[in-house]
Amino acid sequence: MAEKDLKALFLHQLKDTYYAENAIVKALPKMAQAAQTEELQGALAVHLEETKNQIKRLDQVFQKLGEQPEGVECKAIMGIIAEGDEIAQEFAGGEALDAGLIAAAQAVEHYEITRYGTMIAWANQLGMTDVQDLLKETLAEEESTDEALSELAEDAINPAAA
């Protein structure tokens, strides 16, 4: 019978997050292509590159744990991405499209912030300081992206949609 302790749970969430990050890398170019403003296109392109680096960091976490990088299906992120696709289709060409895309992107960011925050707490509990530092670096990027999307929405996109 497989272990069911905190380390096993940490590893499961790590695999879930790895799957999610790889799904996000596939979704971001579609979101950027759907976006109508250069500002949002640029923000999504920047986050795509960050996400690729975040996957590399997760590879390092797996390595430090002596595990092979692999994902387990993350139904939550697939649902969030599907909602973003729905917004992109339903509001294509409309004034509110970019506002909807930002909302979808922030749903992704909030999911990631929750996952990384939890893994940091568990890594701390398990004494995985080196792993914790890698995860903290990614969490800071996710929080920064969320803040940048909020500023873009509040300063330009939402007023234009109204």
Question: What can you tell me about this protein's structure?
Answer:
83% of the residues lie in helices and 0% in strands. It has helices at 6-34, 38-64, 75-90, 97-125, 129-161. It is mostly helical and 162 residues long. Helix 1 runs antiparallel to helix 2, helix 1 (6-34) runs parallel beside helix 3 and helix 3 (75-90) runs antiparallel to helix 4 (97-125).
Short description, anyone?
This protein has helices spanning 6-34, 38-64, 75-90, 97-125, 129-161. It is an all-alpha fold and 162 residues long. The protein is elongated.
Tally of extended strands?
Answer: 0
The quaternary structure here is: single chain
- Integer-rounded radius of gyration: 17 Å
Large-scale geometry: elongated
Q: Which structural class matches the secondary elements?
A: mainly alpha
Number of helical segments with 4 or more residues: 5
* Average pLDDT for all residues: 96
Beta-strand residue percentage: under 5%
SSE sequence, one letter per element: HHHHH
Regions with pLDDT < 50 over 5+ consecutive residues? none
Biggest pleated-sheet summary: none
Distance between the termini: 56 Å
Helix content: over 70%
